[in-house]
Amino acid sequence: MPSEPSPDLAHLLSHAERRLARRLAALLAEEGCSLEQWRVLSLTADGRGHPMTEIADHALMPAPSLTKLVDRMVADNLVHRRPDPTDRRRVLLHLSARGRILHDRAAHRVATEQARLLTTIDDDGTLAGALSRLTAALSQGAAAQPKVTDGQPAS
């Protein structure tokens, strides 16, 4: 009898991420917030102000798309830009009072749904830790991989 093929980790993670993203997008839409907006709000909610490069990384968006999203969020008075006090050439994004209200409402809904999902799979708090370690290992692995040019390792 043939053995079961081992699960394809990339496929399982992609499938779970897509389903979770759809579920969160529907939940956030009830608050008038997109998943991308939520990612910006959730990072800027710490009150420290963040540069666009950091926000793009957190929001999983290319810089030009993020700029358009942030422009809309500024127009909707959810966030505002301020010069970085330590480097006036940089701009930091901060949550506005209206953005704080939206964040708090949405955060409650997201946390409730996350707790429900984790309870459903009997997670004892290890899933997030395992995913964080996997992300770190992949980041380190990418840095340790030799660059390949035209099918040949770069010298």
From TrEMBL:
<dbReference type="Pfam" id="PF12802">
    <property type="entry name" value="MarR_2"/>
</dbReference>
<dbReference type="GO" id="GO:0003677">
    <property type="term" value="F:DNA binding"/>
</dbReference>
<dbReference type="InterPro" id="IPR039422">
    <property type="entry name" value="MarR/SlyA-like"/>
</dbReference>
<dbReference type="InterPro" id="IPR036388">
    <property type="entry name" value="WH-like_DNA-bd_sf"/>
</dbReference>
<dbReference type="InterPro" id="IPR000835">
    <property type="entry name" value="HTH_MarR-typ"/>
</dbReference>
<keyword id="KW-0804">Transcription</keyword>
<feature type="domain" description="HTH marR-type">
    <location>
        <begin position="6"/>
        <end position="143"/>
    </location>
</feature>
<dbReference type="InterPro" id="IPR036390">
    <property type="entry name" value="WH_DNA-bd_sf"/>
</dbReference>
<keyword id="KW-0805">Transcription regulation</keyword>
<protein>
    <submittedName>
        <fullName>MarR family transcriptional regulator</fullName>
    </submittedName>
</protein>
<dbReference type="GO" id="GO:0006950">
    <property type="term" value="P:response to stress"/>
</dbReference>
<dbReference type="GO" id="GO:0003700">
    <property type="term" value="F:DNA-binding transcription factor activity"/>
</dbReference>
<keyword id="KW-0238">DNA-binding</keyword>
